[in-house]
Every structure is written in C-alpha cells, then in structure tokens.
Amino acid sequence: MKRFTDRVVLAVGGGMDRDGWSNGAAAAVSYAREGAQVAVIDLSEEAANATVAEIASENGEAVAIVGDVTSLASVEAAVPNRSTRSAESTCSITTSASRPWVGPSNSPKSSFSPPSI
User: Number of structural domains, the chain?
Assistant: First the structure.
C-alpha cells in the first residue's frame, strides 16, 4: 500500500506556474503518487487545473480549488466539504508565496491574530 492511501492532502500554492513546475505542484504530484487525494489550492484556476491534469494523467485523484491563503474568508469559502471521497485523515502542505505588501508582516501586530485550528 502507498503511504498516503485514503488521505487527503491540501496543497496550498500547488498550481503550476507559467514556466512549468512549481514547488507546490511538485509536492502535490508527489503526494498523489503516494496515493493521496489532493486538493490543489491556488490563486490561479489555470495553475491549479494544470496540476490536477498532471495528477490525473498519472491516474491520481485531485480537485482544483481557487483560493487566496492571505484571506481567511477566502480559505473558509474554498475548503469546506472538499474531498473527492471520505478519507481517514488530512494533512496540509503550504508552498505559497504572498506578495510583500500582503499579510501579517506588514500589519500592526495588534490587528493580526492567526486563525484558530
């Protein structure tokens, strides 16, 4: 049995970029090769779909989800009830890069609170 059979992996930033492979796409495909069902989350639907197509070409299971990980509301809207079938457990990988002007590093510390898990 493969190491990630019956598991769902959320590959945040998992889309392929215009030049081909990204770190996130490589990780998403690697998890799929190990049996994971992969939810590819990316800002770009085209990029997420490219990774899903690569996974499908190897008979893996994946779904593309458009979402902005710098926005909690975007993530909450994109992720609920997203799995291709019931799964034993979930893991998440994050390889996304945000623009330097987005996110908590440029916000006053008092206005940033990480989401509860």
Answer: 1
Q: What is the CATH number of the domain that holds 107?
A: 3.40.50.720
Domain containing residue 50 = 7-111
- Give the separation between CA 70 and CA 63, rounded to whole angstroms: 20
User: What residues pair up with 10 in beta bridges, in sequence order?
Assistant: 39, 92
Q: How confident is the model at residue 103 (pLDDT cuts 50, 70, 90)?
A: very low
Q: What is the DSSP letter of 24?
A: H
pLDDT of the residue at 92 = 73
Encoded tokens for 96? 């996304």
Asked whether residue 65 carries a pLDDT value surpassing 50, the answer given is yes
